[in-house]
Amino acid sequence: MSRKFLETDGPQWVQKGIITEEQREQLLALYPTDATAIGLLPLLGSFLVGLSALSLVAANWQGLPELVRLALLLGSLCSAYAAGEYFRRRGNTNLGMGLVALGLILFGASIVLTSQLYQLIGYDLTGLLAWAVAGMGLTWLYRSRLLFIMTVVIGGIVQGYNTGQLGAFSYLTAAFTALGLGYYWWRRPDSLAGGVLAAGLLWQAALLINHLHIKITWFVVPAMLIYAFGDWQPDRPAGRAMQGPPLVAAFLFTLGLALFGESDLYTGQLRPPLLAYLGAMGAVLAISLLGKRQRGRLTSATDWLLLLPGFYFTGGLALAVATLVVLYAYSGSVLFRAHQEQNPDRVTLGTVLFIVTTAVAYFKLTWGFMDKSLFFLLGGVLLLGLSWYLRRRANHTFADKTPAKS
Amino acid sequence: MSEQPISVAPPTPVQPAPLPELAPALHRRWLQWLVAAQVLFVLGVAAAGYATGALGKSIWLRTAPVDPRDLLYGDYVRLNYSISQLPGHLWHGSQLPRRQQAAYVLLEQRNGSYEAVGIYPEKPVEQSNQAILRGSVQDVWRRGLRLRYGLERYYVPEDMSRELQKRQSLRVQVSIAPWGQARITKVETAP
């Protein structure tokens, strides 16, 4: 990225006398050409070759003798790993890791196809679990983000198959994914991996809640536990990424409460046993707050506004309105903190949240008694005005910032 | 990068030591182990399948008519056996059956195929004309229960899928290994 910038704008700087031609070349030398672009072509080529081999084998699969099929599977498995290791050692990391990932996929395919070969459809999930274990082993071995993400996905597939086809939840798989990958991420914090891991764990938590047939509100307990884990992560961006998916879930949950909260039928479905739920949430809140204090981020405690258990009140419309107030408080706090930290991404996020909340509030409070065309007109004007104001606020903040920095 | 507005001086965060890369020799050894384990696992699956067919006891089971339209959804058919739904009076447990519980079905030969004579929560003793199939309870209702054996799916070979054009019952040969594992070895259309 930086090199491209230098290449396009560099000559102008020389022209304007800001830097000399030698200095430009020295700067260019600081940013060598990216090796990834070169690695992409052979990757695509081998992908196509592999695809043709695959379709040839797949077309004749049924006709091949059993031993040949087994040898084909194991041969391609081993050669994928060997080739991956070869390229990685030659310095072509992307291609190497891609091949190792292919090896992991081939392992899963081998398990499934070998079972089919002998008409084995076990009703335990040993085979699939072995796939997840292999993914975990490779992640730790290669310290690779690609393999990490694949292991999250494999864990989700294993759990989905287990609850969907076999009608049982595998606590082993859940604990294995959460602990093995969680500890890995703790030691090697990374934003993308954090977000993916959080999403994968939320998926498993949702499957568990669905499997146990308990109130869906319980979902937020594991979700916020993941959030609290992000609080303890010393690496701030990675921790924030881990907290993204749980926060999205909590926001949507509260938004749903604002939209449908006045119907007692809906809130009734949300009410778990009071003491157990509040006890569990209190414990998670304590873990989260301790983490925030430890890392000096207590201001982000406003995130917990979304978790106010408003559904216990049978207030009808008043409950929906109170929930809207909470949503406003939350999106307002996001905006406020973003302006304080002068963080443009978070300003955008806060703006979007604020506008969504306003749209819901407007829809909720005026739909019933206003003529439809007037409703849309006023709503549009309101949102346009709001976004104009918020954008002006944001520009103002960043205009303050720019001269201070230069 | 920019000055972060931190209000109170926080306790210095304990940054865990970043995870170092593995030493090359260690990396190579672990990789060899990991790949070998994967190969052995696949071979183990194949060996278990082969041994079940070679060493197991063969029995024939009857299925309900198979819907040929099922074939359109993939390369397998869903099999529903005569022993998939059983009357509740065959249950021999001290407590009522629960969902997800393991169940051992005692089978006895009756004119050509095997039929259930009892369902047990623990493995019973079998006679020479009998066989035991392990399953799990899927559903319980007042008069009976539905069981699942892990034999409900049959990957149809190409030459057979042409035979299965109309709705008909099947005879399924199942091999039960001494260690309890079972697999389908042959499928025929019932006369």
Automatic annotation (TrEMBL), chain A:
Q: Which InterPro entries match?
A: DUF2157
Q: Which Pfam families match?
A: DUF2157
The residue ranges crossing the membrane are: 40-61, 99-121, 141-161, 168-186, 216-232, 244-262, 274-291, 311-335, 347-367, 373-390
| Residue span(s) of domain DUF2157 | 12-147
User: Has the keyword Nuclease been applied to this entry?
Assistant: no
Decide whether keyword Transmembrane is in the record: yes
Keyword set for this entry? Membrane, Transmembrane, Transmembrane helix
Q: What is this protein called?
A: DUF2157 domain-containing protein
Q: Which organism is it from?
A: Hymenobacter fodinae
TrEMBL record, chain B:
Q: Which domain of life is it from?
A: Bacteria
Known InterPro entries for this protein?
GDYXXLXY
Q: Which UniProt keywords apply?
A: Membrane, Transmembrane, Transmembrane helix
Listed transmembrane segments = 30-52
UniProt protein name: GDYXXLXY domain-containing protein
Give the originating organism.
Answer: Hymenobacter fodinae
- Lineage start: Bacteria, Pseudomonadati, Bacteroidota, Cytophagia, Cytophagales
